[in-house]
Description:
- The structure holds two protein chains of two kinds.
- Chain A has nine helices and 20 strands.
- Chain A is an alpha+beta fold.
- Chain A has two domains: 2-231, P-loop containing nucleotide triphosphate hydrolases (Rossmann fold); 238-353, CATH 2.40.50.140.
- In chain A, the strands form four sheets. A six-stranded mixed sheet of chain A has the order 6-7-8-3-9-10, with helices on both faces. In chain A, strands 13-12-11-14-20 form a five-stranded antiparallel sheet.
- Chain B has a domain at 91-266: MetI-like fold, CATH 1.10.3720.10.
- Helices cover 74% and strands 0% of the residues of chain B.
- Chain B contains 15 helices and no strands.
- In chain B, helix 11 (220-248) runs antiparallel to helix 15 (295-313).
- The longest helix of chain B is centred in the first third of the chain and has 32 residues, at 84-115.
- Chain B is flat and about 95 Å long.
- The relative contact order of chain B is 0.12.
- At the A-B interface, strand 6 and helix 2 of A face helix 10 and helix 11 of B.
- Bound molecules: adenosine-5'-diphosphate and magnesium ion.
- Magnesium ion is lined by residues 42-43 of chain A.
- Residues 13, 16, 18, 36, 38-44 of chain A line the site of adenosine-5'-diphosphate.
Amino acid sequence: MAQVIYDHVTKRFDGVIAVNDLTLEVKDGEFLVLVGPSGCGKTTALRCLAGLEEVTSGDIIIGDRVVTHIPPKDRDIAMVFQNYALYPHMTVYENMAFGLKLRKMPKQEIDRRVKEVAEMLGIQDLLNRKPRQLSGGQRQRVALGRAIVREPQVFLMDEPLSNLDAKLRVQTRGELIKLQRRLGVTTIYVTHDQVEAMTMGHRIAVMNQGVLQQLDTPENLYDHPANLFVATFIGSPAMNIFPARVVTGEGTVRLVAGDVTLEAPAEHRGRLAEYANREVLVGIRPEDLIVQPGQVSEDRQLRLPVEIVEPLGSETLVHLRGPAGALIAKADPHLHFSPGELASVRVKIEHMHAFDPQTELALF
Amino acid sequence: MTTAPAGTVTQAVPLRLRERIRHWLDSEPVLAYLFMSPGWLILLLFMSYPFFLGIWISLTDRTVGLPSGEFVGFRNYAELLRDRTFHLTVMNTFIYGFVTVPFKLVLGLLLALLLNQAFPMRNVLRAALLLPWIVPTALSSLAWLMLYDAVLSPFSWLLKNWGLIESNIAFLGTRTNAIISLCIANIWRGTPFFAVAILAGLQAVPQELHEAAAIEGANRVQRFLAVTLPVIKGILVITTLFSIIWTFADFQLVYVLTKGGPANSTHIFGTYAWQIGIGGAGKLGIGAAISLYMFPVLAVLSAILLRYVRSQEA
Ligand SMILES: Nc1ncnc2c1ncn2[C@@H]1O[C@H](COP(=O)(O)OP(=O)(O)O)[C@@H](O)[C@H]1O
Ligand SMILES: [Mg+2]
């Protein structure tokens, strides 16, 4: 068990900066998720930590050792690969025992550990099978088991659930969380799936184009995204973004976008006043738009035409014609909307976000 | 189908025949044999016919001058058993076939491992590697003939220059020397086949497996044994068996370099069969018998090969 530190780590492949000045501290026993769109450098960051890639600059620390130039085998880590990387000619047992044998562990001890972990993962009946005789889910477990038996200081996992079907993925996700909490081993988990990130991580590091955007708890990422990228990446469907002009009046600050006018929340008036008569980007999550069909009582602030209705069962997504492009709202599935009709929309102003249009940093 | 009205009975017969043929063609076993028949025909025409003709000739006293020989039973085979040159030939073939292969295997493996590393100009070198195998053996054998020349050999010249030997080596002059020389030339020619086949296998080893093993603590040798070897094992077995078979059935290299000499002491099956059957005496019957003595060995090797390939498919 150990902490992990990336200290200004940069990894450059000829021409491409895959990881750009990454500084990140993972606490002992923490489940940290690295999330970001495909190609943002998650895998590279993980491989640098594993020692499979030499960093271009910066340092990596595991526990209290600087491991930047130490070979993978001496870093005391275990990695679960996306395609599992099980040794095809070895049985499940041999796959799990391989690393222990290399460490010259006594046979009985190997046997005890392999069986214990196999039991823990429910694969004790598969020990004599070869990987090709296993289902995707079983292989995934074996890959996990192979990592666990070694009792390493850190687990590294690169999209370990992405090859499973949707149902199994959700189930395994839950088991993996329980397992990690139980073993308490520092875990760095890479995924491009923000739902996985939100449900699994103690903290989440959001990356984009090799740069760390924000490192925070799931709640804070959702409630207080640091910039436009994080705001739109976390949450599904993505946060609605539209430009609005800041108009200050006697004791009020309003945001005007086309024929839509929103009263700014009182606690953010000061911050917005700096942008008086200029534009900001307003962000509102679909779940913060309370939408009802037709015309309802007076406190509804907006009336917008419905364009598309997507019933998902547990909720209905209503695409409204907003001031600049579509606004998506999450609605009660029992309400009935028809394209072309007007809907009444109330904005939960207290959950509104605003971003600087140039820096894209969050104002609030 | 058989509900034709009474008045049209005469038409019903061809209709039913066509129906039956169509039905027949729908059956998978029938179709399978139908599709296989061209292959069978080619095999029969170009492989089986010469093979059985060879067996027939080996049982006659046919000669080049007298194409219609008499049936003599196993006399040709019996005669060979008493032939000292034939004894030598058998021994030479086994030496030639079994001694060269381990060298080709190890050298080919080393070359493949080397060429699987990343380095500049790798592709050029990979292509160049194939040369000994691509160049017609008759040509490359001539080059070796020059290298082994009793007077002009550059090997001798070099070694003399370095003061390692006093006089030229008779590379092809004695039986021992000649066989060693033949083996070296054969190894040179056969190694690229191993290297290329193994290289193809090495490229099929997923990089992730190496990385997983490296993280688990395996060094290079352990990774080779645990990850690489199991993947290329099949290729090693198959190339080895192929190589033995080809070397057994070789002709060109020996024919160009020694013609079986000195004093008929370096023949292998191919060259001796040619010399007896066509070259010198023209005794077709005995020549055929010599070739056919090779058959059991090749048959066993082929059977092992086929069994292995099938077991891998399962
Ligand atoms: N071995 C490599 N050689 C060159 N470029 C690479 C290599 N590995 C990754 N990259 C590049 O680095 C960037 C980040 O890749 P990666 O870490 O795999 O992203 P992710 O895992 O987030 O999808 C990509 O632009 C990718 O093309
Ligand atoms: Mg990746």
